[in-house]
TrEMBL record:
GO terms for molecular function: oxidoreductase activity. Belongs to the HIBADH-related family. InterPro entries: 3-OH-isobutyrate_DH-rel_CS (IPR002204), 6-PGluconate_DH-like_C_sf (IPR008927), 6PGD_dom2 (IPR013328), 6PGDH_NADP-bd (IPR006115), HIBADH-like_NADP-bd (IPR029154), HIBADH-related (IPR015815), NAD(P)-bd_dom_sf (IPR036291). It comes from Fredinandcohnia salidurans. Keywords: NAD, Oxidoreductase. Signal peptide: none annotated. SUPFAM superfamilies: 6-phosphogluconate dehydrogenase C-terminal domain-like, NAD(P)-binding Rossmann-fold domains. The keyword Signal does not apply. This is NAD(P)-dependent oxidoreductase. Residues 167-286 form the 3-hydroxyisobutyrate dehydrogenase-like NAD-binding domain. The keyword Oxidoreductase applies. Gene3D superfamilies: N-(1-d-carboxylethyl)-l-norvaline Dehydrogenase, domain 2, NAD(P)-binding Rossmann-like Domain. Its EC number is 1.1.-.-.
Length: 307
């Protein structure tokens, strides 16, 4: 059996290394692929087979993808020189990429027409959890296929969930991301109001990280706000695109969600004011500028602020 992994970015690298353990244990032949030769060097150093040519993976029984967006996934799978033109009926594609619900369904239907099974299995976690093999993986597609690949998924994740038919994994991830985005928008708007009216930013931040208004978002991002740290590998602009994907579903099924719509407007304000390349909590800077305050620790050095 041959297994391949395409996409060795921030999240894919750790996952690909964990999946390589199966070859060391004699379970399958293994190949990793990325268009960037530099991404392959650390795999070569561990004597893992590598390639920059996607076509070298087309004879794999299982092809795992971890790619940046829907456009790239479509190009790799459905494109003029995509995998489908070279794969044979019975082969499987397992997609860890975060793409849209409707996009996943479209890809799966095209794969099915060509005798290829496709599963959408988006991931949730951080780069360190990819290395530790403790990701959450939400899977949509054929349940029998899920059961077959689960031992491989267990090498990469701690929480492995079968969510339902094709698209169910992406829908779950979209809902999770939208909840996170709503939480982030709420304290980004309200923290500057408290500081404007005289509250101590650190004490207010402590309350929002520990009291009934706390969330994973507040516990993770408010410390970064107080330090003036807005850098992150996942940008505010990309977070907005997650909500755009959710909005496509809402429009298709005529479902009104006013809280999500309001959150999208908050993100739009931040994007229009040049904060799209920073992480999502950078939207607080729009409200800081509007109110003429900064939500920072006392005596923080100017050099720490990312302007």
């Amino acid at each position: 059996m041959k297994v391949s992994f395409i996409g060795l970015g921030v999240m894919g690298t750790g996952m690909a290394f964990n999946l390589a353990k199966g070859e060391k244990e004699g379970e399958y032949d293994y190949l990793v692929c990325d268009a960037n030769p530099n991404a392959l060097e650390q795999f070569k150093a561990q004597e893992i087979k590598t390639t920059t040519n996607v076509m070298d993976t087309a004879d794999s029984d299982y092809v795992f993808l971890c790619l940046p967006d829907l456009e790239i996934v479509k190009s790799v799978v459905l494109g003029e020189n995509g995998l489908l033109k070279y794969m044979e009926p019975g082969q499987k594609i397992v997609d860890f990429s975060t793409i849209s619900y409707l996009g996943a369904i479209e890809i799966a239907e095209t794969c099915k027409e060509n005798g290829i099974e496709y599963m959408d299995c988006p991931i949730s976690g951080h780069p360190r959890t990819t290395v530790d093999g403790t990701l959450s993986i939400m899977c949509g597609g054929n349940e029998e296929l899920f059961n077959k690949i689960k031992p491989m998924l267990d090498r990469m994740g701690k929480q492995i969930l079968y969510m339902g038919e094709i698209g169910a994994g992406q829908l779950t991830k979209m809902i999770n991301n939208c909840v996170l985005n709503i939480c982030c928008a709420s304290f980004s708007e309200l923290l500057p109001v408290g500081v404007k009216l005289g509250l101590d930013p650190e004490k207010l931040g402590d309350v929002l990280m520990t009291a009934t208004g706390s969330s994973f978002a507040s516990k993770t991002l408010i410390p970064k706000i107080l330090e003036g740290n807005f850098e992150h590998s996942f940008s505010l602009e990309r977070a907005y695109k997650d909500m755009e994907s959710m909005n496509e579903v809402l429009m298709k099924y005529q479902i009104p969600l006013p809280t999500l719509s309001g959150t999208m407007q908050t993100y739009q304000l931040a994007l229009q004011n040049g904060h799209g390349d920073y992480y999502k909590h950078a939207m607080i800077r729009y409200f800081e500028d509007m109110l003429g305050v900064e939500v920072r620790k006392k005596n923080i050095e100017e050099a720490q602020l990312v302007k």
